[in-house]
Design brief:
By secondary structure, the protein is of the alpha/beta class. It has two domains: 288 residues, Aminopeptidase (3-Layer(aba) Sandwich); 136 residues, Alpha-Beta Plaits, CATH 3.30.70.360. It has ten helices and 16 strands. The strands form four sheets. A six-stranded mixed beta sheet has the order 1-2-6-3-7-15. Strands 10-11-9-12 form a four-stranded antiparallel beta sheet, with helices on one face. Helix 2 crosses helix 4. The chain is elongated and about 85 Å long. The structure holds zinc ion. The site of zinc ion has 5 residues, from helix 4.
Length: 431
């Protein structure tokens, strides 16, 4: 090889204090989502740091996207460092929002305390630790190889935990993930340092409403109970839909393995009169409910089509229209995200595969995520298929009390990322 990766690896080792401090600084900004707080503070912090290291930065507010408002503006930052020769661009994207704290913490959730080789706090694992790791990797690489080819981008984006529409979705619509601008994308979500996440299952969310007719509850035969109609829907789901979904298996390496089948959650059910407000001890009135609604969360496999997923639900509902007296329904689609799977032969996959093998001396595992993440926007809007999630941290720690990220895992992850940069941005040097 025409360059010395040993020095690069040693440089990353020597930056471990900086890596810890950077992670702590980020964790100490409680950028909670909801409501979408302090995104600008995180972006300002990243702006200072990255401009000091020679990046050009842009601050972009995703005006008018879900959640963006003057009180909680959806700020994003995109930082770019050009090399000295033309070449390809590798982009590291991290979301800067963290989920609510929840109960059960023994550490200060926004303290960034170091204990036993780990940094504790909300967002350490998901995913400020990953963000810090990618920054250290890029800075070490630039310091060691200032004459690199192409460009490195680092973005901090808003609102991934609520769909990323004001974050990567917005940036992709602005052209930031078009294949002309960016060729390789790594999202340092906490999939762990020896795993490459190729993509995620699809999701289809819908609300189903059954209709009835209101009447006095003492004479239900004079009305038509919408909740009983919904009971018939759920019965068919239990008898037909759930067994059919459980029998389907995907080739996608989804973890946990139980998510390699199709799944559906019933997120909520509402029927009849609203519950009394808390503190009220009023007794309910007696009415036959004329409406019942459920929200379904259907996760589907690369082998299934959107049309089939939707079609098997409407087939059950239409069958009930034919066979059940006075049954009628409304179906309203709430959201749809197709599955995303990057090919194992894609350049970013083979590059990171080799980096993990050489840096960690282990064979990486390919995985896919049961739920969606920002790759959906890179794929669908950006039309860029060369994207993976790779970052330190254990997925099981995400959103948990006493969330942590391992310091050595971050260092190892930074080495893998920096090694990947040498493969993508230096190898052309002989040309
Ligand atoms: Zn995340």
């Amino acid at each position: 090889m025409p360059f010395d990766t040993d020095r690069l690896m040693a440089r990353i080792d020597s930056m471990s204090e900086d890596l810890i401090q950077l992670t702590q600084d980020l964790v100490r900004i409680p950028s909670l989502n909801p409501p979408g707080e302090l995104y600008r503070d995180v972006c300002d912090y990243l702006d200072k740091r990255l401009t000091r290291h020679g990046f050009d930065t842009q601050m972009l507010r995703a005006h008018g996207t879900p959640g963006d408002c003057d009180k909680y503006p959806a700020w994003n930052i995109v930082a770019r460092k050009e090399g000295s020769h033309p070449g390809e661009c590798i982009h590291f994207n991290s979301h800067v929002d963290v989920v609510e704290v929840g109960q059960g913490w023994t550490f200060d959730p926004f303290g960034g305390e170091v204990s036993d080789g780990k940094i504790y706090g909300r967002g350490t694992c998901d995913m400020k630790g990953g963000l810090a790791t990618s920054i250290i990797a890029a800075e070490a690489f630039i310091a060691e190889f200032p004459d690199f080819h192409g460009a490195i981008e680092i973005s901090g984006s808003a609102g991934e935990e609520s769909g990323g529409y004001g974050g990567v979705g917005f940036l992709a619509h602005q052209g930031f993930f078009s294949p002309q601008r960016v060729q390789h994308v790594i999202i340092p979500e906490p999939l762990h340092k020896d795993r490459i996440c190729l993509g995620h299952r699809g999701g289809w969310w819908a609300e189903i409403e059954t209709m009835g007719e209101i009447a006095h509850g003492c004479m239900p035969f004079l009305g038509d109970c919408a909740v009983r109609h919904m009971g018939a829907v759920m019965d068919r789901f239990e008898k037909d839909l759930f067994p059919a979904m459980a029998a389907r298996h995907t080739e996608m390496p989804v973890v946990p393995a139980s998510a390699r089948s199709s799944t559906m959650n019933i997120n909520s059910i509402h029927g009849g009169q609203p519950e009394c407000p808390e503190g009220s001890d009023a007794l309910p009135t007696h009415c036959v409910p004329d409406s019942c609604r459920i929200v379904i969360d259907r996760r589907y496999l690369a082998e299934e089509s959107y049309e089939d997923v939707k079609g098997e639900v409407t087939a059950i509902l239409d069958d009930l229209v034919r066979t059940r007296d006075s049954f009628s329904y409304n179906l309203r689609e709430l959201n749809h995200v197709p599955p995303s799977m990057t090919d194992r032969q894609a350049p970013i996959v083979t590059t990171v595969h080799r980096a993990i093998t050489e840096v960690l001396g282990t064979t990486p595992e390919y995985v896919a995520s049961p739920g969606t993440y920002d790759q959906k926007h890179v794929d669908r809007i950006g039309k860029l298929r060369n994207c993976i999630a790779y970052g330190p941290g254990l997925l099981e720690m995400a959103h948990k009390p006493d969330e942590y990220v391992g310091i050595q895992d971050m260092i190892d992850g930074a080495k893998v990322m920096a090694h990947s940069l040498t493969q993508l941005l230096l190898l052309n040097e002989a040309d």
